[in-house]
Amino acid sequence: MLCQHCKQQEAIMQLFITENGNTREVYLCESCAKKTQEVSFVFHPAIVPEFLQALFGFNSTAKDQPTETACPKCGLSFSQITQVGKLGCSTCYETFETQLEPLLRRVHGGGQNVGKIPARRGATLIKRMEQRKLKETLQALIQQEAFEEAAVVRDQIRKIEQSAGGEKSDS
Amino acid sequence: MIRKELLLQHSAWMSETDSPVVISSRVRLARNLEDFPFPHGLSQEGAAQVEKTVAQVLTDTEGENKELSYIPLTELNSIEQQVLIEKHLISPSLGGATGARGVALAPDHRYAVMVNEEDHLRVQVLLPGNQLLESHRLATELDDLLEAKLDFAYRESQGYLTACPTNVGTGLRASVMVHLPGLVITKQVQQVLGAVTRLGLAVRGLYGEGSQAFGHIFQVSNQITLGKSEEDILTHLDAVTRQIVEHELQARELLRQQTPIHLEDKVWRARGTLQNARLLSSEDAIHLLSHDRLGTDMGLLPKTKDCFATLIVDTRPGCLQYILDRELDPSQRDEERARLIRERIA
């Protein structure tokens, strides 16, 4: 949606303007919004799907190299996903990983998942993460020449390696 | 508990707390079953199957406040659905949708789990005041119980997988509902909330409508769900919320010092109207209740029998008709709204 004021830039926020006791809403771009006085502004969720479609659309990889690959589970193509603004199923994340990457970077800033891991299904993953963390601690302790503490951490790493699910240590 | 009794139950988040600015906290976790397409791609039968599977597990959970009752939305009339929306227990989009979908409610509504909304499961916890961490603890407890029995869609690199990529990762949306009359009256709200939106947080009004006309109530929530831990997301929102509270309290103090008589006039005028009006529109009621709450918070008015959040919710069109057990046209609603407020504010 274009800014209702300059009619040139993309509108990024919905503003509620109160004049003489009457409230009206306008969609403005950032620079026009900044110029507007006496408003209370609210980022409105109603326009999120539109922006999301725009975000999908911005994906140059998808535009330049149109692909008709369909998700093997739900059958949706990436262009269909773009139209709806939603993925079809969990497998879409794997099927369209490359196309989704720039979008996820724009929305979330490009980080990898560091959140909760499901306890039952992610048991192996949890062990691997624990092990990685311990290895980092071990390196730090060695650098500090805290060898006694380092030996304790090394034993903990070995214990995880011996149980199923751990990564084999390089050292 | 029979359905009407459950729906009319006083929701935990509407209780009065000693927090003068933060009305309530909410944490929502988005989860999907691995073996089914996301809700918008489900066939009728598929949606019914997801609902059956999930409702079974939800109603099997045990533990403090976790005796959940599952309510299929297909069994509710439009006023009952409106009540759930007005109490913030379901989203307007779940109410407006069709097909197999519903909500599992705890007796005091602290848990409200939506089924087949945008994702198969939306685990929500709603508590009064600033209780983001406690809300998250409760949500995680229930999530763990569900995860023991259901296979949630999850990838190591992207975390919990959701229909909309804006929720992927933690699936966590945390929000606080804040009452900011001081910032609105002193015309600082745009500046303060504008700063908040630059910190990766989103701001919207109560029920998503306009701001000033709707009780000076705003909702602030995180936008980023991937690449940050739950703890980081909650700590950030909590820190920003504390800043907002600080600014609001300063604005109130400014009003007390610079225009004390105008402030007193505003809040007493609100109390007087609420105690005596014979007709009140929904919008008028919220606006006056907001000024009344400002007055009680600042010790200028005696406390009312019912608290702010309860009065705002109970006087919305759906709740009002459900409480009175009859359909009312808009002018009848204005009359009944004024009557209900007169009785409860005494």
Automatic annotation (TrEMBL), chain A:
SUPFAM superfamilies: C-terminal UvrC-binding domain of UvrB (SSF46600). Keywords: Kinase, Transferase. The lineage of its organism: Bacteria, Bacillati, Bacillota, Clostridia, Eubacteriales. Residues 128-163 form the UVR domain. This is Protein-arginine kinase activator protein McsA. GO terms for molecular function: cadmium ion binding; cobalt ion binding; copper ion binding; kinase activity; zinc ion binding. One of its GO terms (biological process) is stress response to cadmium ion. The keyword Transferase applies. Pfam families: UVR. It comes from Desulfosporosinus lacus DSM 15449.
UniProtKB/TrEMBL annotation, chain B:
PROSITE patterns: PHOSPHAGEN_KINASE, PHOSPHAGEN_KINASE_C. Residues 21-251 form the Phosphagen kinase C-terminal domain. Gene3D superfamilies: Glutamine synthetase/guanido kinase, catalytic domain. It comes from the Bacteria. GO terms for biological process: phosphocreatine biosynthetic process. A motif (RDXXRA motif of the pArg binding pocket involved in allosteric regulation) lies at residues 333-338. It catalyses: L-arginyl-[protein] + ATP = N(omega)-phospho-L-arginyl-[protein] + ADP + H(+). One of its GO terms (cellular component) is extracellular space. Keywords: Allosteric enzyme, ATP-binding, Kinase, Nucleotide-binding, Transferase. It is an enzyme of class 2 (transferase). Appears to be allosterically activated by the binding of pArg-containing polypeptides to the pArg-binding pocket localized in the C-terminal domain of McsB. The keyword Transferase applies. The keyword Signal does not apply. Its EC number is 2.7.14.1. GO terms for molecular function: ATP binding; creatine kinase activity; protein arginine kinase activity. It holds the Pfam family ATP-gua_Ptrans. Signal peptide: none annotated. Belongs to the ATP:guanido phosphotransferase family. Catalyzes the specific phosphorylation of arginine residues in proteins. This is Protein-arginine kinase.
